[in-house]
Amino acid sequence: MTKKDKRLFSFQDIFIGLLFLVFSISYCQESTKIDSLKRLIEKYKSNQKNTLLDSSKVILFNQLSEAYIESNPIEASKFAMEALALSNKIHYKNGSLMSFSIIGRINNNTGDFTIAIENINKVLAQKETIKNKTFLGDNHFYLAQSYLFLNNFPEALKNLNTALQLFEKLNDKLRIARIYNNIAILYGKQDRYDKELSYYNLALATIKNENSKKANRLKDIINSNIALIYNDKGEHDKALKILLNSYINRDKNSNPNNYALICRSLGSTYLSLKNYDKAIEFFEKSLKIYSETGNKSGLGDVYRELGKVYFQKKNNQKAIELTEKGLSFSSQIGELESIKFGHENLAKIYSQSGNYKKAFENQLLYKKYSDSMFNGEINNKMNQLQMNFEFERKQEMLQLEQKQKDEKQVNEAKKQKILFSIIALSLFFVSILAVGIYVNLKQHQKQKRIVEKQKEVIQNSLTEKETLLREIHHRVKNNLQIISSLLNMQSHDIDDEKILATIQEGQSRVQAMSLIHQNLYQSEHVNKVDVENYLKELAAYLSKMYRGDSDEILVAINTKGLQFDFDTAIPLGLIVNELVSNAYKHAFKDSIKGNIWIEIQALNDVDYELKVSNNGNKLPLDFDIAKSKSLGLKLVTILSKQLRGSFKNETTNSKTVCVVVFKDLKAFQSLEV
After folding, report:
1. Other beta carbons less than 10 A from residue 385's beta carbon
2. Number of structural domains, the chain?
3. 204 lies in a domain?
4. Is 405 helix (H, G, I), strand (E, B) or coil?
5. Taking the CB of residue 414, how many other CB atoms lie within 10 A of it?
6. What residues form the membrane-spanning segments (predicted)?
7. Is 321 inside a domain boundary?
8. How far apart (Å, rounded) are the C-alpha atoms in residues 562 and 598?
9. Which of 130, 154, 178 is the last residue of a domain?
10. Which domain holds residue 11?
11. DSSP β-bridge partners for residue 656
């Protein structure tokens, strides 16, 4: 589909390849490239003293195979196999990979999609060693095409997204647009027309300012695909105008399969307009090209469409003959969508002919293939793949931003390190000076002034350190607020309630950690968190998130003036966040009014007990925390263990109570010492 990128090969191969290019240009223009390459091969074969490197011969065979790939698949396959045989003989890995890639593309064009997948996977099995990202992306694209024809939508989408990521990094707009076009086709096969049209428009927007021959050919293909949507919507005149424009302005030297596709689309449009003579004329043009290129997929589709023409002309015998011929081609290559439509057409034809048994049999087969293509599991898998892809792209952007921030922080840390070194060095010399003065000077007054000076320096150092700690807490709080804002912005574009709930849960966890740093920043003691004040702010935030301005659910907090250090406060805050969030989401899911109680009491100097209770909906009698699939409850269990404690739930007649027994980590660690 695209020219070979020379960067796949060594510098020596590139140099020799360029010599071939110059040599071929000296013979003729691009229109006679095949003749030039064939002359080079004949010259190589006839020269017994030929000094051409074997690896360069492989490149030459692969170039000739690529030149034939669209017009003569038999010749293309012959030269690719010669290149592969020579590559294996001389153990030329890059040559083998290029040959497998070309053979896979030939299989795609002839409709042998399973074989295409097998050959392209031989290339991608070595993907870790392939440095040429364009070559790698192209092969993911070719693999996606094979899966797309076989209606394996999840695998097709996965490989298209992989190729898209590679080409986005290379800013290759033409290849990006080509991928968007295939994603549109994928959604069109699933009758998801809104998504299909949006990706076609995205493809056109991507190459809007590109005016190369390849770009213009791709624009014609995309516009032809859009025309088929207009056909499906019954706007046949609008579709015909677009297709005739592509047909008239086509590049005669372009891909013959693309030209055949335009002819087929025109035939389908004329069929919809009941202009049967024109429909037959363009279908036969398309058949001629597909026969020459050996494209079984195209032959299957066109024979089936011709069958529809004769069905509408009431010639049922010929309609059956042509439709079954098309079905035979589609069955050979396992193209499910075409097989499905073939059986649908046969059911209609046999029904009109009065052969109701055959009609019923074909209707059952149509339903069987239709059900295999469209099911919720496939849609869910595709949606998950697309969500993962979008998430990874956003993660890359965030990682880039974070990298820039980290570099800035590293520079600031270096400055701070120098400052600390100066302070430490200064303290060291002051200490030496103080000892010297103490030993050598007996005058009490001088000794007192020296000690006071030392205290002043130390106090200044401590003040600077405390200020630095406050600044660190302030910056961490700001960074967490940025993350929370990003999650909030992301949630605006999401309609799926489950995904939105997941993002809100993540946002509440970030907010729980942010409030800890805010309390430390504002506290008189930078290493102690006022638990009651912190929990009030957290509860207010969760109430706002889940119930808006409603105050029908009352939250009571009793912590008896407790304070914890940072290491204990963070997991404790996350535990409370999960338990209170669960109460809002599940206990009060169908209730307007209710109460939530949060209580922490000391069991001794080290152990504490947290109780989060509510009087909403009760947990099921057989509820088992250990078997729960809830991420929130799993997180509570993990955090409880982190605090050297345990988590359990109790259900009374009036309340559901979650109990977490935990340790003050700082007090516990002091006992261990």
Report:
1. 18
2. 3
3. no
4. helix
5. 10
6. 418-439
7. no
8. 13
9. 154
10. 1-154
11. 614, 651
